[in-house]
Amino acid sequence: MHGAGDELTGVVAAELAKSSAIAVALATANEAAAKLLSAVRPEPD
User: Fold this and answer.
1) What is the pLDDT of residue 1?
2) Source organism's superkingdom (predicted)?
3) Average pLDDT in the 7-28 region?
């Protein structure tokens, strides 16, 4: 599990709460989710 959907949703909500434009909110959230997915994590046992 990586939580990319949670990351995306949370960042969109945070950006919209700051009154960012929807395009900015989505772009920022997409970048955050991509960064989360690209992080190297240990495999669970």
Assistant:
1) 64
2) Bacteria
3) 98
Predicted confidence at residue 42, as pLDDT, reads: 80
Check whether 45 has a pLDDT greater than 80.
no
Q: Give whole-number Cα distances, 2 to 15, 32, 45, in Å.
A: 21, 12, 15
Provide DSSP, 1-45: ---HHHHHHHHHHHHHHTT--HHHHHHHHHHHHHHHHHS--PPP-
20 — alpha (psi -120 to 50), left (phi > 0) or beta? beta
Between the alpha carbon of residue 28 and those of residues 1, 36, 43, 45, the distances in Å are: 21, 12, 27, 32
Nearest to 8 by CA among 42, 31, 39: 31
